[in-house]
Amino acid sequence: MQREAGGIKFGRAVKPDAMPGKFSVDVVRMKDVRGPHHIHTKGEIGAILPLDGAPRFDGKSEGWYVYGPGSDHHPTVEGGDAYVLYLLPDGAIEFTGK
Q: Which residue has the higher pLDDT, 25 or 12?
């Protein structure tokens, strides 16, 4: 996680290509923070990995989640510190600035 902005540490561990099945693999560390609004243009598969406290990512506790194509949100962690690992088909994500 070589980057940091607004209290969020993040990085792309794997770029989208044939090796991971054309998914990018990103890791974000979030602690009691609301992230930038974005659209999952092709969907998102993710996992919430708690580090401290009882963090909830978008209201979800530890484990896997799926957002369908066209879904959008401000990624939010409340109640603690967590890694969020997410896979994006073809690395597709659109930050909106909202």
A: 25
How confident is the model at residue 67, as a pLDDT?
A: 98
User: Which residues share a beta bridge with 12?
Assistant: 26
d(CA 94, CA 79) in angstroms, rounded, equals 27
Quick one: average pLDDT of 32-51?
Answer: 96
Cα separation, 69 vs 72, whole angstroms: 9
The beta strand positions in the chain, using DSSP E, are 3-5, 8-14, 23-34, 38-40, 44-57, 63-67, 71-73, 76-89, 94-95
Class of domain 3-93: mainly beta
Based on its alpha-carbon atoms, the radius of gyration of the chain, rounded to whole angstroms, reads 13
